[in-house]
Design a protein that fits this description.
Elements: E1 8-9, E2 15-23, E3 34-40, E4 47-55, H1 60-64, E5 72-76, E6 79-80, H2 86-98, H3 100-104, E7 106-114, H4 118-129
């Protein structure tokens, strides 16, 4: 199921923003079940945000199926990660998942996902035909 009504594009049209409510109840101790990485600018080493590095088999995100590797985490349970250092964003993520998320049995994530450009989609599709 996709939340197309939740779809918002960035002004340059390269990324879409999606909101997911991911239930934690049946995943037990596996929690959300993602590992994340902080990306930095190659030029000035500025923090560029927190991204999903991998999705762990059996975790809530895996069972939910909507979160993808390389999605950028923008906010968790209503708390923005933008403008925070990677270290602060990781700490925010950790806290909200352990306390508030578990109380509600849900984690709300806002993510930014890169949008494939039309020519990339056509290229991938045509390569699949060969």
């Amino acid at each position: 199921k996709t939340d197309e009504d939740e779809l918002v594009l960035t002004p340059d049209g390269t990324r879409e923003f999606l909101t997911f409510e991911i239930p934690l109840s049946d995943s037990g101790s596996a929690g959300l079940g993602v590992s994340v990485k902080g990306n930095r600018s190659k030029e000035n080493h500025a923090d560029l945000g927190i991204f999903v590095k991998s999705i762990i088999n059996g975790g809530a995100a895996f069972k939910d199926g909507r979160l993808r590797v390389n999605d950028q985490l923008i906010a968790v349970n209503g708390e923005s990660l933008l403008g925070k250092t990677n270290q602060d964003a990781m700490e925010t993520l950790r806290k909200s998942m352990s306390t508030e998320g578990n109380k509600r049995g849900m984690i709300q994530l806002i993510v930014a996902r890169r949008v494939a450009k039309r020519n990339e989609v056509v290229k991938i599709w045509s390569e699949g035909l060969n």
